[in-house]
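Issue 218. Parser rejects a valid record. Input:
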Amino acid sequence: LPLALFSSTRFVGLTLLTFLLYGALGGVLVLIPYVLIDASGYSATAAGAALLPLPVVIAVLSPTMGRIAVKLGARLPLSLGPVIVAAGFLVALRIGSDVPYWSSTLPAMVLIAVGMACAVAPLTTSVLASVDAGHTGVASGFNSAVARGGGLFATALLGAVLAAHGQALEGMFHVALWAGAATALAAGASAFFWVRE
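Output the parser choked on:
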């Protein structure tokens, strides 16, 4: 990885956005199925199926968001997407034993998916545009590794906190949602301040 890539403020901002956004997403998505099983009595299959709106909405909306980013520039969707993800995390605070799927998990998953769809296509395009043509492969690979690393870091941190504190799952889930929302907002801020057209 050429260290010269980090001389680009845009590349650094996009890398930070990637780490924070995928870290927030990974940390929260690890817990949602467990909470659905533990607090709401879902089977493992039903808990997995409850997350299906996420990939479906992202797959449907990403091409449109990519076209919007081409017309309006990447900064707006890259800044707005994480804010929508944060809103989805806050809606997910309703997930629990007494709240039906349709008024808790589904709206949270749809909001998170819309926010991710806003960011995914413009993020990839922006990373590739932030470096010279000779380094696009390296930049793309590094960005993918940062995305996976963000999710893994959040999952490992979450596991360590759960092991150390032994809190009830639902209480820890709420802490993770608030932390995820704050992290997603920080991701949006990194796009707003560091990604220039």
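Fixed in the parser; the record now loads. The two ends are 24 Å apart (CA to CA).
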